[in-house]
Each structure stands twice: as C-alpha cells, then as structure tokens.
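Why does this matter for the project? Reviewers at the last site visit asked to see concrete outputs rather than summary tables. In response, this paragraph embeds two records directly. Each consists of the residue sequence and, immediately after it, the corresponding structure tokens. Nothing has been edited or filtered.
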Amino acid sequence: MSFKIENHQKSKRVRVIKFEESDLDRLIFPFKKHTILSLEYKPFSRFSLAKSLDEVFENKLSQTLVKILNDRETGTVIIEPEMSNKKFDKDFLVKLSTGLAYLVGNPNFDSMTDKYYARFHVKHQDSSDSYLRKAYTNLDLHTDGTYVKEKTDWLIMTKMEEQNVSGGESVILHLDDWEHLDELSNHAVGQQNFTWGSPKSKNVDYKVEHPVFSKDKKGKPTISYIDQFPEPKNMEQGLFLQKLSDALEESKNKVVFPLPVGSTIFSNNYFWLHGRKAFNEHTGLSRELLRIRGTFFN
C-alpha cells in the first residue's frame, strides 16, 4: 500500500490520504482509456475507472475509504495528490474524483448540471440565486441533499482551480463535537417534518418533507439541514431554525483550513456539516469546484 494516511493537523477526526506523483503516473494510461464524455454517457465505464484506481493501491484504497467514511469517530478524509506536473490537468481531476466516488458507492444524478457530478465557479461578480456562488458571504454550515428525494450518504468536493484567492477557507463540523447537539437534536420541533424547496438554479421542481434531526441504526443523531432551503410553516419552526443556525455558526469546534488545489474532501453527509468562509474581495477572483454526492453500495 503506497498511499500515506495521516491525521489532519487541525482535527484528529479527519484523515489525510496522500498520493505520490509516481502512483499518479501509473494512472495516466488507464485513465486515458476513458474520455469525460464516455464517463458521462456510459455509467459502467466509471466502475472500470475506479477499479484501475484501486489496483494501483493494491485494492486497499476502497477498503480504507469505506472504513473511514462509515466510522462515526472519523467520517471525513482529505485526499491530497502530489500534482505539480501539468500532465495532471482538470480532466485528470474529474477522473480521479469519479474513481474515488465509485470505490464507495453510486453517485446521485445532479439536477443542476444533468450529470452525475457538478462543476461550478465562484467569481467576483455573481447573479445566481444560491449562496453557493456568493464569494463575499459565508457559506454557512450545512449538509447536502436536503431538497431531493434521493438519499445522500456522502459528499465529494474537489478544488479544481483557483486564481487571486485570499480567504475562502473550508469549514467543517462533526455533529458529536457540536456544543448544542443534545439540546437541539432532542428538541421536539427538530423532529417535526419541515418543507424543503430549492432555488430555480437547482432544476428541482418538487419539494420534500423531512425533519432536521433523525437517528441512525445505533440511535445516534444525524442531521439534514441547510439554511436557505427550509420553508417553516409557523413561528415555532422559524424560531427553531434561527436558534439552530446561530448555534452552528457560533460553535467553537468548527475545523477551519485551506484546501490545496487538486485536493478532495470526502465526507459522511449525516454527521459532518460543511461550509466556507467568505473570500477577500478581488476583481479577478475565481475558484472552480467539482461536486459528487451519492449513496454507499449495499
């Protein structure tokens, strides 16, 4: 097994897997077999790509990812490939992210882009209807998939590129480290059904209902929440959401760190929340991200 596993310097819960450039070199040939178009149009090709990735690491990478992501004590891994050479371009990152995803499960269809993944930019000027692209506003802590019918067990975010960037650090919080978990996860309103919608850019024409807090198979609390999408039915629900938002953002146990270009955050979506700090203003600011979210194999 040639990849290295370390604890993240900011959190003992977060694992870091480092790929050496010599191992990435061994992926160039098998990755060339698959164009981006073939990966988008032929789902079975994604499994072939993932198998090539696993074989480079003696079929131990898939086992390691599944173990980390399903372990409540950890649940997040950051993959840091050594990619100083220009031969590792954006297409390579799409393929690497695809391989990582298909080692653990099936991605959901992403309505925003009509693909199994989404790529999007954060820029200086923005006219979108979502906080996702608002560069100079904090993207508050949230989970993904709150507004869709599909389950969302896990989330991948890969930083494809950035220019003229200062600030914009990643922010994550493990549910068990949150100071208000017992109080708010056991609150009666948090277990009521909320209505969840989405802005037009998400291309989802229905609404769903579910509570903010549920329990996993072991009775541990899980969360499904994002601040922009719930539609409170009454004063009680509205005030609960405000209290929840304040308690999350004021947590002293948030993990804040810069994500290197080319790196991927891979997180369990039930007990890790994620967000982003605001960027410092720059007219040439640009960051491109790739997102994949999905479910574990049975």
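We now turn to the second protein, recorded in exactly the same manner.
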Amino acid sequence: MRRSVLPAILLAAFYVSAAQAADAIGFKETTLPDNGGSRPLHISLWYPTDNAEPVAEVGANRVFHGISAVTNAKPLGEARPLVVLSHGYGGNWRNLNWLAGELVHQGYVVAAPDHPGTTTFDKSPTEAARLWERPHDLSRVIDALTGDPTLAGTIALHRIAAVGHSLGGWTVAALAGARFSPDRFLEDCKAQPNPRTCGLAAELGITKANAASLDTYMGDARIGAVVSLDLGLARGFTPESLATVHVPVLIFGAGIDIGDLPAKLESGYLAENLPKTTTTYIEIPDAMHFSFMQLCKPGAVELIEQDTPGDGIVCKDGGTRGREAIHREVAERISAFLDKAIPAQ
C-alpha cells in the first residue's frame, strides 16, 4: 500500500491536465426514467463549456455555498473523461458540488445521482433497504452518458472513474468489485457494536434475508479508478474480494473521529485489504467526516441546530485549517491521482 508523504503544495507539480481546461462550467439536471425495473434517477451534470451565460450559483441554499456555472450550456465537442459521484447517507448531489467544479476545470465531465431512499430528497424506506441498488445507480448513469452525448458531451470510454463520500465510499468500492457480506457485517457488529454504522443495518436492508442481493458482484468493468472519502460499512466487504480489486484506489480517512466512525476501522480496513501496489491511503489529521462536504455559510451551524438539533456537526471541521483549505488539498490529490490512474492515451 502506498502512503503519500508529499505535502499538498508539491502535488501540483504532478499535474498532467486531464484535458484542455474549459472556460466555464456547464451544469444541467435530468432524470433517468423507470425503465421497467430500474428506479427513476435524478442526475446532476457538470461539464466543460465555452458558453458564457446564463451564469448562476448552483447547489446553494441558506446553509451551503454553491459554485458558479452556466446552466443548460452546450457541452464542448471533444471526448472527455467522466467521473461519477456518490453522496453519503441522507445526502444529495450538492454535497460534492465543490469537487465537481474542480474536476471540470481539469477537463472532466462529472455526474451525480440522488440515490433513492438514502437522499435528502427521497427517504423512502423501501428504496433505502435496497442498498445494492446504489452501485447499479452509478452504472446506469454511465450508460446514459456514454449513450447520449447531448447530455454532457462525448465520453472517453477508457477514462471513467468514481468518487464517493461516506456511504458513497461504500458504493464506489462495490462498483470497483468488492463484495459485501451481510453475515460478515452483522457478526462484526456483535464483536464491535457501533451505533453509527451497525444501527443502519435494518434500514439499509443489511439482513441475512438479503444476502443473495448484497453478497454478489456489483462491479462495473468500465471503471478505471476509484476514490473513497471517509467511507462507512467497510468491514462488511470480504478481504478475499478486496484483494482482487484490480483498479487503482485512493482512500481518504478523516483523522478526527466524529464518534463511532474511526478511520482506522473503516477506511483503514479497506486500505489494508486492497492490493498494496494499487492502493493509496491518506489520512487527513484535521479533517472530520463532514469536511468532505460543501462549504458552509457563516452562521450555518446555528441555522442547522435550530431545525435539527445535533446536525450542526456537518459544518464543523477539526483543526486550525478551514474547510476550504482541506478541499484544496483533497482536490489536488484527486486530480493528480486520476491523471495517473486514467491517463489520456
């Protein structure tokens, strides 16, 4: 397992641009319909464009900052690499909006679905209990974008990667070929009870009755690299399946535990069992679990606490650096990783 020791400021020296940088970020939203068994998916798309207007702040609300983008812009013509994003439990496409913008400036097309049942906008218990659908959601997004260049431009089929935060990290690990065993997970919860992860088992359908759906191969051969941002539920992945993951994996762990989600037992477990030669593990000492989400506005903690006491933690970080500095380090490391993992040919 490779462990990065270079300071973030040096990583810029490794940049080989994913593609020629675009003048602006294009943004649009679309929906993939129910196609006879697959659930409807709301998708947000970011992509390079040379359109200059209309510019809007996308992904903002009274708590979180958004990014500037040209809405419903025309994509640029040449083939571009694709990154699909997966949000965490209870999250949505806005959570990694900041990273999407950074990647577009490096020449990538970026797409993020709202996973039904586990998104802010859809908390259906039935859909939440179909955890195995999350990796399939990302595969459907790839299908859509590679099959229809009018959505976000032409996709370079040999340059596709996936990035996920929290439960999204679990999702992209499964998409890379890791297999999840409900039996293993539930036994681990007996040995190491954890209310934050084990407490979600029933809600996410992690039961022996669903073993056939969960303990199966959910990988997508089109994925060339994976990035996990402080994932959870990692110890349900079998060591045997992790050892066979053949794509490069970059794993970030948050150095400050928010309580019952220690990096050593989640991201660390993933890193220890993946192939050492293709895995990089970086633990950011002053990051907390929610440091990977979008930037918070002044007074955000107080606003959140008024509505949902206890949830203000999503806008808290653990060290002397602000979230913007943590984002800068993470974005630089991801860009350098992807340039090497899915290079232009």
